[in-house]
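Objective 1b: paired records.
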Amino acid sequence: MATSVLTRTAAKGGSFLLESPRPEDVFTPVDLTDDQKLIGQTAEEFVLKEVVPHIKELEEKKPGLMVELVKKAAELGLMGGGVPEEYGGAGLDKITTTVLTEKLSLYGGFAVTHGAHAGIGTLPIVYFGTEAQKKTYLPKLATAEWIGAYCLSEPQAGSDAQNALTRAELSPDGSQWILDGQKMWITNGSFADVYIVFAKVNGEKFSAFIVERAFPGFKVGHEEHKMGIHGSSTTPIFLENCKVPKENLLHEIGRGHIVAFNILNAGRFTLGASCVGGSKQVLATASKYAKERKAFGKQIGEFGLMKEKLAEMAIQIFAVESMVYRSAGNIEAAMAAAAGSGDKIQNTMKVLEEYAVESSIAKVYGSEMLDFVVDEGVQIYGGYGFHEEYPVCRAYRDSRINRIFEGTNEINRMLIVQMLMKRAMGGQLPLIPAAMKLADEILAGPSSDETPEGVLAEEARVVANAKKIFLQAAGGAVQKYREKLADEQELIGALANMVMEIYAMESSLLRAQKSAAARGEAAAQAILDAARVFITDAAGRVENEARRALAAVHEGDMLTTQMAVLKRFAKRAPVDTIALRRNVAAAVQAQDKYPFEGK
C-alpha cells in the first residue's frame, strides 16, 4: 500500500473561501512518493503498450477486447485500487488512486470503462456493503474476474435520480426482492457481471441493490450509438420480475440516496483527475504536430497564436491538476484521521460529504478544461483535426460526455452553492460571520493594503480580494433571497463560478510558491509564470461574475455603492500575460508535453 506523509490536519471542506493556508500546508504533485510515481508509471505504460495499439478495434467494439484489457490491467493491480487488501485489492490511499486514475485516462473509452468498474461499480460495496457482501463480491471485482457497473439513470430520471420509477417489492415468502424497471446509459452494460441498481421499495423508499447479471429477469439491451467514447459499452438494462436475494440489499431500505450521492461525490472527484490525464495527452499530441506541420515556410508552432494556444492549454491543466491533488491530500488526511475511530461507514460518508464542494469543482472545472484543451487541439491540427484518422478528432468527441455524466455541470454548479449554504447554516463553515465582518469593513471605508512581500505576493493579494468579492456578492444574495435563493439559478451559477475560480486561483498560487521554495525561483520560472497568467485571467472572470451577481441583487444607490466596493476589491496591477504565455509555451515545446509533471 502506497502512502504519503501528511503532517497536518485536513482543511475543512469549503474552508478555502475563508482561510489562507501556507504553501507547505497543501499537497501538490511534488509531494508524490516514489511508490506513487511508480504506480502511475505502471498505469501509463499499460495504456500506451496494451490499450493504445488497439484503439481502432476498441472503437469498432471488437467482441471481448475491452474485457480482455480490463482483466490484463487487473493482473497488474490496476483495477482494485479502491478495494481493501483483506478483500484482494491493492488498498491504495486517495492520493495514489488519483494518480492511477489520471494515468489510466489517456484514452477516453478505457478511462470510462475503468471508472465505471473500479470506481462507481465497486466502491458502493467497499463503503456500504455488509461483511458477507464484501467477501462475496470484492475479491472478484478487484481481480476483474467480475466487472462492475452502476445503474442510476432512467429514461425520465437523469440528474433527478430520486424520481426513479424502478420498483422493488419483497416476495411473499420474504426471501427475495422483485425488481421491475429500466435503467439507461449504463457504462459496461454489455459485459458487466455485477450491477449496483437503485430502485424504490414499494414504489416509495429509494434503495440500492447488488444485482448479478445471471439473476432471473435481468436483461441487457443493445449498445447505444453515442457521439463519443465508442470504445466503451453503454446499454440500457431491463428488470422484469428480476429476482434478487434479500441479503443483496445494499446499505438500508430508504437510504439509497446516501449511497448514490456519496458515490457520486467520489465519482465526480475521480472524473476531475481523469480529465487531467486526458488533457495532458492531447497537449503532447498537439505540441508535436505543431512542429511537424509547416505553413508559410515555418513550423506552425513558431507562430505566436499557436504558442498562445499551447501555453493556455498547459496553464489550464496546471490549475486543475493543482486543485485535484490539493483536494486528494485533504481527503486522504481526513480519511487517515477518521480511521480507527467509530463506525467506518459513517466516517467514510462524513469525509465524502465534507469534500462534496471540492468534488463538484473538480468535475465541473476539469470537464470544461478538457473541452477547451481538445477544442484547441483540433484547431492546431486545422483540417486534419476534423478527420477521424487523427487522434484529436476522437478526443474531441470523447470529451463532451464529461460535462453531462456524474451529474450535469449545471446541477453541480447548483450543488456547490447549496452545499456551501448548508454547511454555513449548520455552523460547519462560518461564511455568515465572515460576510458580516466584511460588511463592517466595507462601511468603515478603504484601508491601506499591506505591501505584498515574497514570491507571487501580489497574486496572493489578488486571491485574498477575490474571496472578499465572493463574500460581498454571496452576502447580498442571501440577504435578499434567503431561503428562495435556490430559485435564482442564474445567480447561483454566477456564485458557483466565483467559488470555482477562487479554488483554482489559490491552488495554483500555493503550488507555484511551494515549487519555488523547493527548487528556487529560477528553476520554477515557468510554473510561476503559469500561475501569474492564470490568476490574472481568473481575477477578471471573478470580477465579471460579481458584476452580474450584484446587478441581480441590488439597484439604485445601493448598486452604485456595491460597484464602487467591487472596483476597490478588484483593483490589480496590469500583467504582461503575452510575454508570460510565451515563456510557458517555450516550456511546453522544449519537451513536447505538459511541462509541470511532478513539479
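Objective 1b, second protein:
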Amino acid sequence: MTNPVLNDRFLVLKDRIDDFLKQYHQTLVRLDSEPLVAIIGELRSGLNEPFLFVVVGEVKSGKSSFINALLGHPICQVDAAPCTDVIQQIVYSETRFEEKIHPLLTKIGLPLTILQTIAIVDTPGTNTVIDNHQEITRNFIPHSDLVLMVFPAKNPYTQSAWDLLDYIRDDWRKRTVFILQQADLARPDEIATNLNRVRELALQKGIADPHLFATSAEHETSGSAESGFEAVREFIRETITGGRHYRLKLASILESAERVTEKVEQSLADRRERLVADQATVDKVKQRLASGHKQSAYELKSLIGRLTEAYHQAARTMISDFRDGLAFRQLFERSVRSTFGRKPSLKKWLEKLEVRFESDLRRRTETITEEGAVHFVEGLQVLLQQLLRELDDIRSAPIAEDHLFQRLDRRRTDVIEAVKTNMAELIGGESFSTRDLQATDSLGPSLVGGSALTAVGAFFLVVTHGLFFDITGGILTGTGLLLAGGVMFFRRNKLIAQLEANLDAGGQQFTSELNQRLSDRLNLIFDDIDRNFLALYEYVAQEAARLEPVFDQLQDLKRQQRRLLEDTHGQLQD
C-alpha cells in the first residue's frame, strides 16, 4: 500500500520493528510457547496490514448493524438468531471478494474509500450459546489496534461484555471506544444516563479519557442526521489524519509485544521459582540416595561380620570334633572294628563329620541371613517412602488450557508422575531382579515383578550358602586324611593344623567374596532406584540450561522494545 505519509523515517522504524519481532518470534519458539509464538507471528504480519478496528460486544447488541451503517453497505448479516460464528475481517479491495482464510476467519474485500486506511473486524458475540464464540473473539484481541465495544443503548450493563473489557484492558491494554448502539430503542434520558454510567465504569477500569458514542443504525439507514454516526466518522478521521494511523498501528503492535513481554517475564519468573524448587528436590533425592547407600553398606558390612563369626563358630566346633576323633583309641576302634562291620570306617566318619559341619553352618547362617535380609529390605522401603514424599512435595498446579508454556508444563508433570509411579511400584511389591536366584553370578539390574523381600532375601541366602559350600565342600576329604588310623594318630597335630589352616583360608575367602558379591548387588539395587529418577534429573538440567539464556535474551529484547516505543511515540508527536 502506498501513501505519501510513508516517509523514510517511518519505513526505517517499520523495518526495525520487523527485525525486533523476528528475533522475538525465534526466542518464543525456543521457549516452546505456542500461544505467544502465534501472537508475535500475527503482530509481525500486521505490520503490512491496515489499521485494525475490532468490533466486540454481546450477541444482539447491534455490532453487525453498526458496521453496515458505518460503511454504508449491508456487509455483515443481520438476523434474529446469532449470525456471526467466525471472525469477519473487512478490508479494501478494488473488486469485491470473500475468502475463507481458515475455519475461524473470513476475509471480505470491498472497494470502499474508508477501507483504504482501516480494516474492520466483526467478531462473534460474547454471550452466545454457540461453542467457541467467546474464545474466537478473545484470540483476536491481541492483534487489534483499536477496539470498538458495542453495547445495547437501553442496557449496557451485561456481565459478559464487561468481563471481556477486563481482558481487553488488563491482559492487552488496548485502546477502547464505547458505542451505545440501537439508540432508537431507548429514550433520550435513558441514553444520557447510560452514557454517564458507562463513562464512570470505564474510568473505574482505568480508562483515563473514554470515548463514548450513542448510535442508531436504523436512523443512519433511513438518512436521519440524529443517527450519531457522523461523530464516529469524525473520530475515525481524527485518528487516521495525516498518516497518523500508521504510527498508531506501530505503537499498538509494540504495546502488544510489550504485554507479551510482561506475560513471558511473569511466566519465566514462575518457572525459575519452580526450577529452584525442582533443583532442591533433585539435591534431596541424591542426598537421600547417597545416605541410604551408605547406611545399607554399613548394614551389609555388619551382616557379613555376623556371618563370618557364625562360620568361625561352626569351624571351631568341627575342629573340636575332629580333634576328639583323632584320639588313638577312637582311631584304633574305627580301623579294627570297621573291618568286622561294627563301626563306621574312617572315610564314613570323615564324611559324617563334614555333613555335620555343613548342617551346623547352615543352621547358624540361615537365621542371620534371613534377619539381615528383612532389615535390609525394610530400610529400602523406608528410603523409597522418603523419596516418594520428596516427589509429593513438588508444587504442581493444574495446567490451564491457555497457559503460556503448556507443553513444557505437561512434560514436567508427566516426568514427575512417571517417577512417582515407579517409586510406588517398588514400595508396593515390584521387586529387584530375581534372575539372580537361578544364576548367582548374574547381577543384572532390571526390575521385575514379585516381592522385594523374597527376592532380596532369597538372593542373600543363595549367595551366602553358595559361597559357604563352594569353599568348604570336601574340606576334610581334600586334606589327604584317608590314611590308616595309626598314621593319622602320629600325624594328628599336623592334620589338625592343616584343617585349621584350610578352614581359616576358607573363612577369609568367604568374607572377601561375600563382601564383593553383596556390595555389587547393593550398587545395582541403588542404580535401579536412581535410574527411576534419570528423567527428572534430565528435565531439571535441560530446564536450567534453557532458562538462563532466555532471561538474557528477554532483557535485550526489552531494551530494543523500549527504544522502538520511544521512537514511535516521538514520531506520533511530530
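Residues 244-325 form the longest helix (82 residues). The longest strand covers residues 51-57.
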